[in-house]
Amino acid sequence: MKKRYVVRSTKETSRLDAAEVAEEIVADYKSKQNTSHALTKDRSFEHYARLQSNATKVQKRGAQNKYAFSDEYKILFRAEDGVVAYFGKHDVGKINSGMVRDDLTFLDSRRDKPLASGTKAKQCMMIGKVLMYALEDGVIDIIPAMPKQRTKDAPRVSITGGQYKKLITTARKIAAAGETKVRGVLIEPQHVQIWEFMVHSFMRPTVSE
Question: Considering the entire predicted model, what is its pTM?
């Protein structure tokens, strides 16, 4: 659609009166262009997305998971199909479940294969986080329900007790021989000990460990 100027007369002789009428005309024109768009920036989805993003950046500063903030930022602000690209101009009070569903359909239409359910769930989660800020400000009264995503159960690979015993027995022999390297690291008795410790203590290793 080509951009064009809209010219209307306020029919007012006073500059102050004319300015007020002009603002009303602009607001009325914008509302007719897209009734779901915010009339003021402080009611727009983008406004609350930036508030949420800035707060998360401060909270995640120094966190062990250094990717937590960047992942959320990408979901919100990807240039072509981020949440803000789709909902940015929308009034937070007019976003409903159907609009979120349409956003997910839009994302699928841009790809050869539909997005994974987990990815769609993250998309919905970020929309909900942004709307929570609007709720806390009293701009909206309720956060719309997010479309439910079907998830597939994908349990982690496991081994049997017999396989574990064989692993430890073999690893001890390799460590005692002191000749085997894995990715340039020589397998030593301490490696076998830490494996046993992790299994028997049920500790889940993280970056810090």
Answer: 0.58
